[in-house]
Automatic annotation (TrEMBL):
It comes from Favolaschia claudopus. PANTHER family: MICOS COMPLEX SUBUNIT MIC10. Keywords: Membrane, Mitochondrion, Mitochondrion inner membrane, Transmembrane, Transmembrane helix. Belongs to the MICOS complex subunit Mic10 family. The keyword Transmembrane applies. Its main location: mitochondrion. InterPro entries: Mic10. It is a single-pass membrane protein. Component of the MICOS complex, a large protein complex of the mitochondrial inner membrane that plays crucial roles in the maintenance of crista junctions, inner membrane architecture, and formation of contact sites to the outer membrane. It holds the Pfam family DUF543. One of its GO terms (cellular component) is MICOS complex. This is MICOS complex subunit MIC10.
Amino acid sequence: MSTPKPPSSEDLLGQKYDRCLADFLVKAGVGFSAGVVLSVVLFRRRTWPIALSTGFGAGIAYADCDRSFNPARIPGTRIISQLPGTEGK
């Protein structure tokens, strides 16, 4: 039996971009839907609830993508670098 090859860095980056795009579309869509419902039910068909909730959804998706590409921005995490000479130990 052979071990499977690890995915290349280009594939990992592509998967992250795909995940971020899908996340953006879902969260902005949910925000848009919630804004339409709020606009019709509570705010007498004004447009600002739609724009506001869509922006909230897009902002949350942007923050999630930022954390995906830069894990050092997650609160409470530390990046510990390896000391020279300890790679194989």
